[in-house]
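User: Teach me something about this protein's shape.
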Amino acid sequence: MFETRYLKPKGGVAHVALHAADAVGSLAVEDDGCRVRFTDVPLEVSLADECSLFEEQLSTDGGVVEVCHRLTLVADRNFAQPWLDDDFLNRATCEGLVAEVTLCDSRRLLVGYSLRLASEQPLRLRSLIAGSGVRANDTPTLTLSLESIDAEMAMPIAY
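Assistant: First, the predicted structure itself:
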C-alpha cells in the first residue's frame, strides 16, 4: 500500500503532537501516505534532544498478527508540565490519544489510529516517570510512555 523510503539512517523522534482519540475529523489515504485533519488543538511539548523513541513490535497470537506501538517521550520537566495535568492524564488513561509523530529523518507517522480499527485502539498511558538525573548539573526530566496494540503498522502522513 505505502512504499517505505528511508532517507539515511537517522533514528529518534523530533516532534510529537498529541490529540484526543476522538479528534480525527477526516482521513484520506493517498499513494504517498494519509492526509489527516484533527478537530482539536494538539498538546505539543518541546522534547529533549536525542532521547525520545518510537517502536513497533510485530507478534502473533494464535496466528493473528498484532502490532504493539510504543512511544517514549522525554522532556525537560519545566517544559513537560502539561503531562502532569489531571485532565491530560485522565484522557491518556481512559479515552486514549492519537499522535502525529515526526521522526528525525523528517518522516511523519500517525500512531494510535488505523484504517482497520480507527480509534478503537488508541495510545494509552503506560507510565510517567519523573527523573532527577544522575549528576548535579543534569536537568530533571519527565518520561511519558504511551502504548497501543493494533492490527497494522503506523501510517505515514503525507506532506
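Now, about its shape. Helices lie at 86-95. The longest helix spans residues 86-95. If you'd like, I can walk through any region in more detail.
User: That's plenty for now, thanks!
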